[in-house]
Amino acid sequence: MNRLKKILKGKTTALFLVLLVFAYLNNSSHFAKARSGEPLLLAHRGLAQTFVMEGIANDTCTAERIYEPEHPYLENTIPAMEAAFEAGADIVELDIRPTKDGQFAVFHDWTLDCRTNAKGEPKLYTMAELKQFDIGYGYTADRGKTFPFRGKGIGGMPSLDEVLARFPAQSLLIHIKSNDPKEGEQLAQALAKLPEDRRNRLTVYGGDEPIASVKTHMPDIRVMSKATMKSCLLPYIAVGWTGYIPSACERTQLHIPEKIGPWLWGWPDRFLNRMDGADTRVIVVGGDGSEFSSGFDRAEDLARLPTHFTGGIWTNRIDRIAPVYHK
């Protein structure tokens, strides 16, 4: 009996070692198919004013804590997006809010109070009324002593239709800033009017409910939400060591915090190769995912990425990051 136990124990140990070696060989980037090319650069809100990140909450007015301006652009405006693409962005991210007259305004905040000279939610106004407000009104780098953009942002808030018309061939990441499924349905109806090749260059992300609504009405469009991320990554973490790609990982987008990436099977090259095979885009964001809008905003930040990283990179300062790759 003892001999049988020893034999079984030995076989179990041998099997474990075989699986361990298999998992290593099947997930080590050293044995992955070589990747080439440059990273995909995603410009968050175009080329925008950056701000102090410490202590930010959902209701923090970030316009009141910007750094001393180094450029004249304001987030979510057409000039900011033009500057981002000209600097070398592959994708520009933008935020949308519904308006009183059934359009989408390109604007980040829940209310107009922080950045503009108006009050209340954008949905209380028509698009024409929103264009009368000064979107640079509230920006200050010295706690209200000076307002460098006041008076310069009148008419600067674009509609989503204007952005789509201005950038007909560029890739855009559209952010629904709520969890209202009706907004997802409204956006799907608007995007359905576009030709297929244009829709293929768009990705929509946001709350679980509006994104589920978008996907229901437009199953061909790339989407992302916390729910889609979990449905992909949780089973991948469980069985991805075998090389299996869950169906939920197909044709979607993943925003991976830099500190989480190394815990994913095959990170970085095998993981990226697997997601490429599933037509899924991988974007690395800064930190552990707990900070708002954290990205790679200085050239030295890129040292935190794996060597020769070729996935997507989230940045708030495309003007600093793109020159590193586009010399």
TrEMBL record:
InterPro entries in the cross-refs: GP_PDE_dom (IPR030395)
Organism of provenance: Paenibacillus allorhizosphaerae
The protein's name in its UniProt record: GP-PDE domain-containing protein
PROSITE patterns linked: GP_PDE (PS51704)
Phylogenetic lineage: Bacteria, Bacillati, Bacillota, Bacilli, Bacillales
All residue ranges annotated as the GP-PDE domain in the record: 59-325
Coiled coil region boundaries: none
Superkingdom: Bacteria
